[in-house]
């Protein structure tokens, strides 16, 4: 079984106050094992709806969604999730938050709960903050803790819905570098949702561009070939311009 993500003709319609509201329509794309793929689109394009369907938090009203050749029927330990709101438990320490998923499903093979918590905190640079509570952390540190919690059960897939939207530009740049380092070390498949085009170009192997709502895929654009990315390079500017053109139109 692979950790490929596949969407084929996916749509979602909600029951609105004044009738049906279609959020996404005919969404089709795939994310291959080990890829870093970003979904971008304007507000209201349904990119977060597609994310929630892949995560198993919502059900598609049409089309098919598969992860690892199996239909998605709900959340699962194969998909770690990180949101804009870190959703940390305020009554638990950083280590306690990371430990939560391990208490539910157990640690990966050949590891202990304590050892896994220590490893994930070290991976995100929070080893010294293990005994702190969320209220004592900066926004960037809280997001690192959320990433550590998602990584704890060692899912092959990491799903991230605008996780850095609420942090300042300097912190975001640091988190970008750290996330890419984690991705390269763990070789996980990452699906990342954002409205920040430069962020998408900096991070991604490929960029899935959504239309205005009801959203559908209008293009899939390859990221610049170089890593680490140089935001001043011609390739970076060209890729950013290609994505931006859909928004200008």
Give a written overview of the molecule.
34% of the residues lie in helices and 26% in strands. By secondary structure, the protein is an alpha/beta fold. It has a 6-stranded mixed beta sheet with strand order 6-7-8-3-9-10, sandwiched between helices. A 4-stranded antiparallel beta sheet has the order 2-1-4-5, covered by helices on one side. Helix 2 (94-105) packs across helix 3 (113-123), helix 2 packs parallel to helix 4 and helix 3 crosses helix 4. The chain is globular.
Short key terms for the protein model shown above:
10 strands, 26% strand, 6-stranded mixed β-sheet, 249 residues, Rossmann fold, alpha/beta
Largest sheet: number of strands, sense, barrel closure: 6 strands, mixed
Mean pLDDT: 92
Specify the helix fraction band: 25-40%
Uncertain stretches: none
Q: What is this structure's SSE topology?
A:
Blueprint: E1 5-16, E2 19-31, E3 36-40, H1 47-55, E4 62-67, E5 70-71, E6 79-83, H2 94-105, H3 113-123, H4 139-151, E7 157-161, H5 169-186, E8 189-194, H6 197-203, E9 206-210, E10 217-222, H7 234-248
Parallel strand pairs: 3-8, 3-9, 6-7, 7-8
Antiparallel strand pairs: 1-2, 1-4, 4-5, 9-10
Helix pairs in contact: 2-3, 2-4, 3-4, 6-7
């Amino acid at each position: 079984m692979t950790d490929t993500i596949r969407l084929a003709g996916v749509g979602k319609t909600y029951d609105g106050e004044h009738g049906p509201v279609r959020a996404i329509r005919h969404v089709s794309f795939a994310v291959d094992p080990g890829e870093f793929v970003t979904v971008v689109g304007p507000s209201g394009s349904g990119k977060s709806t597609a994310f929630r369907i892949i995560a198993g938090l919502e059900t598609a009203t049409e089309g098919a969604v598969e992860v690892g050749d199996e239909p998605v029927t709900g959340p699962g330990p194969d998909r770690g999730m990180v949101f804009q709101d870190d959703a940390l438990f305020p009554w638990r320490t950083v280590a306690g938050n990371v430990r939560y998923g391990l208490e539910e499903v157990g640690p990966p093979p050949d590891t202990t709960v304590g050892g896994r918590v220590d490893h994930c905190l070290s991976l995100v640079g929070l080893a010294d903050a293990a005994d702190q509570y969320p209220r004592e952390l900066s926004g960037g540190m809280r997001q690192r803790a959320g990433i550590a919690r998602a990584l704890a059960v060692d899912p092959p897939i990491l799903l991230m819905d605008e996780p850095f939207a609420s942090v300042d530009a300097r912190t975001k740049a640091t988190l970008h570098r750290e996330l890419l380092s984690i991705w390269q070390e763990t070789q996980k498949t990452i699906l990342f949702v954002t409205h920040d085009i430069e962020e998408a170009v900096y991070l991604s192997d490929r960029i899935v561009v959504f239309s205005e709502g009801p959203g559908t895929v209008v293009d899939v654009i390859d990221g610049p070939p170089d890593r680490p990315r140089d935001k001043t390079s011609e390739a970076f500017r060209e890729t950013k311009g290609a994505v931006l053109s859909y928004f200008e139109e």
